[in-house]
Amino acid sequence: GKILGNRYEIIEKIGGGGMALVYKAKCKLLNRYVAVKILRPEFTSDEEFIRSFKKESQAAASLSHPNIVNIYDVGNDDDIYYLVMEYVKGKTLKQIIKEKGPLQLEETINIGKQIALALQHAHNNHIVHRDIKPHNIMITDDGRVKVTDFGIAKAVTSSTVTNTGNVIGSVHYFSPEQARGGYIDEKSDLYSLGIVLYEMATGKVPFEGESPISIALKHIHEDIKLPSEINKNIPKALEDIILKATQKDQTKRYNSTKDICEDLEQALKQPSGSFVKIEDD
Ligand code: ATP
Ligand code: MG
Ligand code: MG
Questions:
Q1: Which 3 state secondary structure label does DSSP give 120?
Q2: pLDDT of residue 16
Q3: Which residue ranges have their beta carbon within 6 Å of ligand 1?
Q4: Span from the CA of 134 to the centroid of ligand 3 (angstroms)
Q5: Is 248 exposed, middle or buried (CB count within 10 Å of its CB: 0-12, 13-18, 19+)?
Q6: How far is CA 26 from CA 36, 66, 76, in A?
Q7: Which of 123, 138, 164, 260 could form a disulfide with 186 if both were Cys (CB 3.0 to 4.6 A apart)?
C-alpha cells in the first residue's frame, strides 16, 4: 500500500466521517499497527486551518489517559494532512447500541464512567472535546473505553459550521449552547455525555428531526422525554443523572465530571427495585 511520511504503510480503510478518512496502517519503523486519520482536502486548503490543526493536535497529544486514544504523530506528506493514533481493536459504541439495543444498567454505567474519566483528564488539561458521540467512543473487546477525536473539532473551526457550510459534530449530541453556535466550555461535553447515557439506556437519541436545524431547535427548546417512559427498567438514580447532565441551563447542569462519576457509582449501588415507575401487573 501507499506509504505516508516514509513510515506508515496504509493497509485498509476502516472508516470515515465528515472531516476525515481513517485507515489501518503499519508503522514500519516500530513494526506496530496504527490508525491514520487523513483529513479531507476541503479542510486543508488554508494556512489558518493548518496552523490550528497542528496546534490542536499538539494539545490532544498532551493528553495521556487509559480511556483516551493515544496520539503518536501528526504530519503532512505533500498536501495530505494526517494524524497517527493508537489502533483500537474493537467496536464503536454506536455499533454496539445498534447491535444490542438498550444496554444493561451495569454496562451503561461502566461505559459512562470511563467516558467521564476521559473527560475529567481532558478538562483538567483545559481541553474540551466538543464532539462526544457514540461514533467517537471505541470499546475494546475486553470492555475498555477509548475516546477518540479530542480537540479535532476545535482544530477545524471555532464555530459549529465550517466556511464550506458543513456542520461539525453530530447535532444529535449538541448542547443547547452548541446548537445556538454560542460559547462552548467543559459543560457542553457533560450535556453530550448525558445524551450518550440516554442512548445507552434507551437505545435511542432523545431528539430526531427532518434536518439538523430542527434537531438543534429541539435541544434548545424541547424537554427530553423521560428515559423511564421508553425503558421502564431504568432506575431512578440513572434517570436523575441523565436529567441533570442534559439540563439546558448550564448552571443547573453537573459542574464537573467528578460529580457525575460519583453519581454513576452510587447508581450501581442502589437496591434493585428502586425503579422510576412501579408497574401494576
Ligand atoms: P466524524 O468525522 O463526523 O466525527 P466519525 O467520528 O464517525 O465521524 P472518524 O472519527 O473519522 O469519523 O472515524 C471513523 C471510524 O474509524 C470510526 O467510527 C471508527 O470505526 C474508526 N476509527 C477511528 N479511530 C480509530 C482508532 N484509533 N482505531 C481503530 N478504529 C478507529
Ligand atoms: Mg470520530
Ligand atoms: Mg470525528
A1: helix
A2: 83
A3: 14-20, 22, 35, 69, 85-88, 92, 131, 135-136, 148-149
A4: 10
A5: middle
A6: 9, 22, 17
A7: 123
Q: Which atom of ligand 1 is nearest to the CA of 19?
A: 2
Residue nearest to atom 20 of ligand 1 (CA): 15
How far, in Å, CA of 118 to CA of 128, rounded?
A: 11
Length of the chain: 281
Distances (CA, A) of 171 to 93, 209, 219, 249: 17, 10, 9, 18
Helix segments in 65-151, DSSP class H: 93-100, 105-124
Q: Does the reported pTM lie above 0.80?
A: yes
> Comparing C-alpha atoms, which of 38, 46, 47, 44 is closest to residue 20?
38
Task: Provide the 3-class DSSP secondary structure of residue 103.
Answer: coil
Angstrom distance (rounded) from CA 173 to CA 130? 10
- Each residue's pLDDT tens digit, 164-179: 555 556 899 999 999 9
State mean pLDDT over 121-144.
Answer: 94
Which of 14, 140, 174, when mutated, tests ligand 1's pocket best, judged by the most ligand atoms within 8 Å of its CB?
A: 14
The candidate with the shortest Cα–Cα distance to 231, out of 258, 261, 200, 209, is 200
Q: What is the CA radius of gyration of the chain?
A: 19
C-beta separation of 73 from 28 below 8 A: no
